Amino acid sequence: MPDSVPLSVHATDTVTPARTVAHDHFAPGDRVVVIRGSLDGDLHGDDLTVVAPSWHPATGQDGWRTRNPHGGAHTFTTAHPRYLIHVERHCPECVAFFRALAAELLPQLPTEGCTEGDWYRFSALDQLVHHADYGLTA
How far apart are CA 100 and CA 136, in angstroms? Predict the structure, then answer.
């Protein structure tokens, strides 16, 4: 990721909230990505490792504790399975989800530079929360 701060751009993501994926689709040790924006016309996101099951209070459902190998302010976060995409192994469901995201989001995002899509926020408890789930947070 570039050293500069990403430009915040509002783009509508209706694909993620509609995604249905079982909790056990992921397992500890899986490498995943959460799409956060675009970089020169391609989707980009945070590369994470799934650590352990964890309750996701924002949705009231089972989530996953994830670890960012680069550390930082949000080294360990909790995310809902519908936010995650496998990156190390071939997963047809995750490939289809990624393609659907690309089809919806890339036309809304600049083709140059680094942008933050404004789809997620971190709660005070380091839970990653999608905009569609904001109203559910305390």
Answer: 25
Whole-model pTM: value is 0.89
CA dihedral 109, 84, 30, 66 (to 10 degrees): 100
pLDDT digits (tens, 9 = 90+) for 85-105: 999 889 999 999 999 999 999
Confidence at residue 117, expressed as pLDDT on a 0 to 100 scale: 87
Kindly report the backbone phi and psi dihedral angles of residue 127, in degrees, each rounded to the nearest multiple of 5, phi listed first.
-100, 130
pLDDT confidence band for 136 (50 / 70 / 90): low
| Of 53, 8, 7, nearest in space to 30 by CA | 53
Bridge partners for 46 per DSSP: 34
Dihedrals phi, psi of 77, to nearest 5 degrees = -135, 165
- Phi and psi for 134 in degrees, rounded to 5? -55, -45
